[in-house]
């Protein structure tokens, strides 16, 4: 549901959602790949949150929204949520040879934004 809502926004090319283990719970983290020339500022974050809140439920609203240059895909073209989830938790990623662009995972390693509330 989150994907459908976010990808309706002109500023967003595509997105990926993962659950991040955080303070004895799990929080939703949304990674967005933006159109050329678009910057993820607080105004766009609020627009994304409003789009999700207004068209799904408040529990779908992500705790964090971060811009990335690329999202990892399998060779068949499917977004790899598991690879991103493992990467942000510092876990090994199995079958990186099944990814069309394994180098995309590098930008998800040790993101300072994921270390704060």
Describe this structure in words.
By secondary structure, the protein is α+β, with helices and mostly antiparallel strands. The chain has one domain: 2-Layer Sandwich (GMP Synthetase, Chain A, domain 3), CATH 3.30.300.30. 23% of the residues lie in helices and 21% in strands. It contains 3 helices and 3 strands. It has helices at 2-6, 42-55, 81-88, and strands at residues 12-22, 25-34, 64-67. Strands 1-2-3 form a 3-stranded mixed beta sheet. Helix 2 (42-55) links the parallel strand 2 and strand 3. The longest helix is centred in the middle third of the chain and has 14 residues, at 42-55. The radius of gyration is 14 Å and the shape is globular. The model has no long low-confidence stretch (mean pLDDT 96).
């Amino acid at each position: 549901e989150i994907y459908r809502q976010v990808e309706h926004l002109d500023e967003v090319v595509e997105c990926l959602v993962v659950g991040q283990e955080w303070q004895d719970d799990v929080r939703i983290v949304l990674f967005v790949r933006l159109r050329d020339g678009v910057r993820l500022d607080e105004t766009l974050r609020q627009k994304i949150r409003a789009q999700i809140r207004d068209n799904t439920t408040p529990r779908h609203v992500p705790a964090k929204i971060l811009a990335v240059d690329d999202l990892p895909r399998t060779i068949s073209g499917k977004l790899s949520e598991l690879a991103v989830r493992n990467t942000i938790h510092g876990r090994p990623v199995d079958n990186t040879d099944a990814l069309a662009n394994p180098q995309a995972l590098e930008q998800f390693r040790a993101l300072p934004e994921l270390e704060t509330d």
